[in-house]
Amino acid sequence: MAEVFDRYGRAVYSVALRILKDTGHAEDVMQEIFFQIWRNSDSFVQGRGSLGAWLVVVARNRSIDLLRRRKPVDSVDDVILASPGSLASEVEHNSMMEKVQKVLKDLPAEQQRSMELAFFEGLSHSEIAERTGDPLGTVKTRIRLALITLRKAFQS
Amino acid sequence: MTGNGHNTQEELASYAMQGLPPEESASIRAHLQTCVPCRTELAQVCGDLALLGLAVEQQPLPEGARERFLKRIAASPAVKPQEKLAEVTPIDVKTRRRGPGFWVPWVSAAAMAIVAISLGVQNKALNDELNDESNMVKNLAAQASRAQQVLEVLTAPSAQRVTLTEGKAPAQPSARATYLPDRGALILLATNLKPLPEGKAYELWVIPANGKAPVPAGLFHPDAVGTATLVLPPLPAGIAAKAFGVTIEKASGADSPTLPIILSGATGS
Fold this sequence. Notes:
The complex is a heterodimer of chains A (156) and B (269). With 156 residues, chain A is an all-alpha fold. Chain A has helices at residues 2-20, 23-39, 51-67, 74-77, 90-106, 109-120, 125-132, 136-155. In chain A, helix 1 packs antiparallel against helix 2 (23-39), helix 2 (23-39) packs across helix 3 and helix 6 (109-120) packs across helix 8. The longest helix of chain A is centred in the C-terminal third of the chain and has 20 residues, at 136-155. Chain A is globular. The mean pLDDT of chain A is 81. Chain B has 269 residues and is of the alpha+beta class. Helix content of chain B is 39%, strand content 18%. Chain B has a 4-stranded antiparallel sheet, with no helix packed on it. In chain B, strand 3 and strand 4 form a beta hairpin. In chain B, helix 1 (9-16) packs across helix 3 (36-54). Chain B is elongated. At the A-B interface, helix 1, helix 2, helix 3, helix 5 and helix 6 of A face helix 1, helix 3, helix 4 and helix 5 of B.
């Protein structure tokens, strides 16, 4: 378990910190996720794809739950991920991170902003539309296009 | 929902990011129980979202975080759901009479045991289902690979494109638009287009069936032999089209089509 923590702890903590902007809360989220895995190893099954990818999605969801004071929604974590690849080594993780960062940087600014609000602030499409003043359909399209761009970059 | 009863990608992305009201989320969850294509697409969306998480700049862990974690797990052994059943202690009805307060923890423990059994069974069923889905994902990946090859043949600059005509008549400019309104997905393949003056571009327009203003669907330039493709330009989903048109516009595009319309075609629906 210590090995899993050493390998993925920073990734999980970094996602939580990015969302919560509070080191204490971010550590709480990280500790709780790894503790739950320790208590119940069935919470992750191989068929779900990469453990690292699954962990960051769970970290994101738990952090948003905390940010919005919501009750955790287990079922959303309970899906297979079409894995972006193995993240077993730090080199692989860094390489993946650089590639994603480049793709995100190349996205149009409004797509970046919509994804930022949806993923890191946990806003719904309607809330993003209200905040930015853009039509709801436009917000949906931007998020869809951003995800398509990201997916294509890793399929090619 | 799309016209064929599946969840749209936007809905699944919102669902995966927990951005839906509880009732909508429950509706999608119920649909996912019985729909393999939507579950597969959800897995893709979650994979995309994981990439966003993985792109976050790595931060050092707080000092002592590792030790705190190791200390915590050392004090709390791992437990499998099935093992929880062994923790349930039967209530001894022969013991002396006790006040209602005594029973509360035991009733809670029994209730938790029932929940644990239920979760254990549910978890096993889900694991089996997920393994089935893994095979399904592999099949879909193979199908996606073939679809990708088809797309590459259609759009590769090096592909030879020939328009077959009756007799020896010279080929005329033409284009074929393939459009899925519920996804806002469009592919245009144009041939024998005339070269454009400097600073100009061809622009495709979707003419909505509801009579609203034409929607710009993308700019394109023909290659040396007059061929051009437009693949999945950014279009809002849900615009029913009655026709498509191509005009010549300035290179940056226009808000409304400039006459004349070079090419046009009705959807026939």
